[in-house]
Design brief:
This protein is α/β, with parallel strands linked by helices. Helix content is 38%, strand content 17%. A five-stranded parallel β-sheet has the order 2-1-3-4-5, with helices on one face. The structure holds flavin mononucleotide.
């Protein structure tokens, strides 16, 4: 397969742990790197940042009044070719830190929809995509419904719609993803596919 050397993927890990979600992401990143992409990984719960305090600075400007590790990430996210989001379900939705990160990306919303001056360069907007990897402890059909509302909204405002996803339920019984090489292989292949498509 043709290598894709210039593509950059931002990978966001929503779990606070280096556990099953991290392992799944690691496999997706390996696939993306093998396919030639550069992957910048961020362990979101361990970034130093505050949740949105609603100053409204981003209504006028393409950044945030608060200067922290998330503010520094805006230009990196805006200029990436693709995104991987790997997250567990917590309280039937996106874990708090990842949700706070996504709230801070309201800067992309105001730029795109209110000021009509998107932060994502026009040529990237046509091709940006997201791979979503999501894990839940329980095995319910609606496990990912809450999470999907938030993630789809985030992917819309940052112009990186979900192109591929991998949902793993019943983790409370599976316990250790190393016992499921089929899932790890799927993550690897989906990471490689993302790198080839962006
Ligand atoms: C604080 C917390 C809340 C959780 N809430 C849910 C939930 O609402 N529904 C569910 O199916 N699993 C829930 N889980 C289970 C996780 O989704 C599951 O254990 C997952 O495998 C964690 O991945 P990790 O070990 O990579 O962080 C919760 C786990 C934690 C720690």
């Amino acid at each position: 397969m043709k290598k894709n050397t210039q593509k950059t993927i931002v990978a966001l890990l929503g779990s606070p742990l280096k556990g099953n979600t991290a392992l799944l992401l690691e496999n997706a990143i390996s696939g993306a790197k093998k396919a030639g992409a550069t992957v910048l990984q961020y362990h979101v719960p361990h970034l130093k940042f505050s949740s949105c305090l609603g100053f409204g600075f981003c209504k006028k400007y393409p950044s945030c009044q608060m200067e922290d590790e998330v503010t520094a990430l805006f230009p990196i996210l805006a200029n990436a070719n693709g995104c991987i989001i790997a997250t567990p379900v917590m309280t039937m939705g996106v874990p708090g830190a990842l949700k706070s990160f996504m709230d801070r990306c309201q800067v992309f919303f105001y730029a795109k929809y209110i000021r009509k001056d998107p932060m994502v360069p026009v040529e990237l907007r046509k091709t940006r995509k997201t791979l979503l990897l999501a894990i839940s402890g329980m095995n319910r059909p609606d496990n990912f419904d809450g999470l999907m509302q938030t993630i789809n909204t985030f992917c819309d405002i940052v112009d990186a719609p979900i192109s591929e996803s991998l949902f793993i339920r019943d983790m409370d019984n599976i316990l250790d993803l190393k016992t499921r090489p089929d899932f790890l292989q799927q993550a690897y292949e989906k990471g490689a596919k993302l790198a080839h498509e962006i």
